[in-house]
């Protein structure tokens, strides 16, 4: 019986100490980035934007390269560029959003933002929407944003231009 007991104790210790468990990896981009002041634009259908401020406490740049959300068919990283007449045009952003080491990167109306594409249901003011942003190193960060009424900048969308204006 003592041998059986020692095996059970060894198994319990292994389970409780998390051998092979999921301790946070402090070397990932996501482990050093936080998001604040996040919010999303209300929309009945189509697209909605997500804004906020990424802050990087790490010693290397962190690059947001993609995202996904249960609220939309896809999430795109967008920028707004000024055309010949000064009007803003929204387009996918090549290379992602770089959050500099020890710095910040703001997502704001009329500039860089996350775009929820092909909404699965309306986003109503006061509700929350979750987006998971993905970094160049494969790590990810869940972000919850409150939905707010916002008419938007009404920039036309130029899909597939990827930085060429």
From TrEMBL:
Name the InterPro entries for this protein: LpqE-like, Lxx211020-like, PCuAC_sf
Q: Where is this region: Disordered?
A: 144-165
What does UniProt give as the signal peptide span? 1-22
Q: By its UniProt entry, which PROSITE patterns does this protein fall under?
A: PROKAR_LIPOPROTEIN (PS51257)
TM ranges are: none
Its keywords, alphabetically, are: Signal
PANTHER family per record: BLR7088 PROTEIN, COPPER CHAPERONE PCU(A)C
Name this polypeptide is given: Copper chaperone PCu(A)C
């Amino acid at each position: 019986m003592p041998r059986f007991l020692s095996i059970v104790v060894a198994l319990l210790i292994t389970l409780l100490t998390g051998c092979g468990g999921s301790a946070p990896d402090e070397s990932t981009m996501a482990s050093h980035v936080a998001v604040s002041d996040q919010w999303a634009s209300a929309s009945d259908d189509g697209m909605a934007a997500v804004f906020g401020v990424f802050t990087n406490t790490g010693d290397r740049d962190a690059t947001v390269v993609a995202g996904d959300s249960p609220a939309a068919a896809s999430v795109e990283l967008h920028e707004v560029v000024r055309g010949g007449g000064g009007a803003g045009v929204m387009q996918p952003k090549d290379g992602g959003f770089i959050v500099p080491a020890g710095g910040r990167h703001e997502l704001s109306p009329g500039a860089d933002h996350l775009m929820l594409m092909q909404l699965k249901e309306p986003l109503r003011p006061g509700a929350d929407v979750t987006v998971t942003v993905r970094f160049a190193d494969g790590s990810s960060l869940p972000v919850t944003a409150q939905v707010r009424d916002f008419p938007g900048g009404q920039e036309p969308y130029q899909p597939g231009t990827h930085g060429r204006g």
